[in-house]
Amino acid sequence: MTYSIHDILRDARILLDRNAYDRPLIPTCDADSRSFNELIASKILTAARQVMEEAPPALLAPGRPVRSRLTWPEGVGRGMAILPLPDDFLRLLSVRLSDWHRPARIITDTDPDYRWQASPFAGLRGNPSRPVAVVCAQPQGHVAKLYSSAAGPDVTLTMAQYAALPQIIDGGLEIPRRLYDAFISRVGELTRLSFTY
Question: How many Å apart are CA 49 and CA 45, to the nearest integer?
Fold first, then answer.
């Protein structure tokens, strides 16, 4: 859902008990209000990213589809596949190849289980019964290494969804509705750390 920056600022000010928007009885300079709004606004993207990185994948679903083409270092449909991820990639939510029995377990290249994916023993590395997707940062961008397939040239990517980096577009921020309260709380927390009453 897309929320306007105006509404986000209002909700964050209410949370911080700094919601004085009514006209005062005695006119005063509103420089403090403007600078306070700017301080809150500077925390919006950071808060959105943190909340989306920490949220369970189910709260981010369905996500956006990954439309990249697979590459196969060992031959089409054999072994590991590499799936390039979009430039605005934040998190891989789900991925499945046509010969897998279920969606992959998603890990990163810092996970201790990553070292087992290069094992010559099929029972230790990812396979169609227990697929594994490893998200890695490479010089050309993020990729998902998909372990592994054995069905040959007929293997296709049947599903791949990701959460995109939060961006402010046309005065609005897209964030899942179920994460909005946590997001506003994080905006308030980051803002509170930046100022003293």
Answer: 6
C-alpha to C-alpha distance for 66 and 83, rounded to whole angstroms: 9
Alpha-carbon distance 103 to 93, whole Å? 10
**Mind listing the pLDDT tens digit for each residue in 43-70?**
999 999 999 999 999 999 889 999 999 9
CA distances from 153 to 69, 70, 133 (A): 14, 12, 20
Nearest to residue 106, comparing CAs of 140, 57, 71? 57
How many secondary structure helices (H) and strands (E) does the chain include? 4, 10
- Find the angle CA(129)-CA(135)-CA(138) to the nearest 5 degrees: 135
Say what the pLDDT of residue 61 is: 85
Query: pTM of the prediction?
Result: 0.84
CA-CA distance, 114 to 131, in Å (whole number)? 12
Q: Which two tokens stand for residue 40?
A: 């809150």
Q: What is the C-alpha end-to-end distance of the chain, expressed in Å?
A: 33
Sign of CA dihedral 98, 104, 174, 142: negative
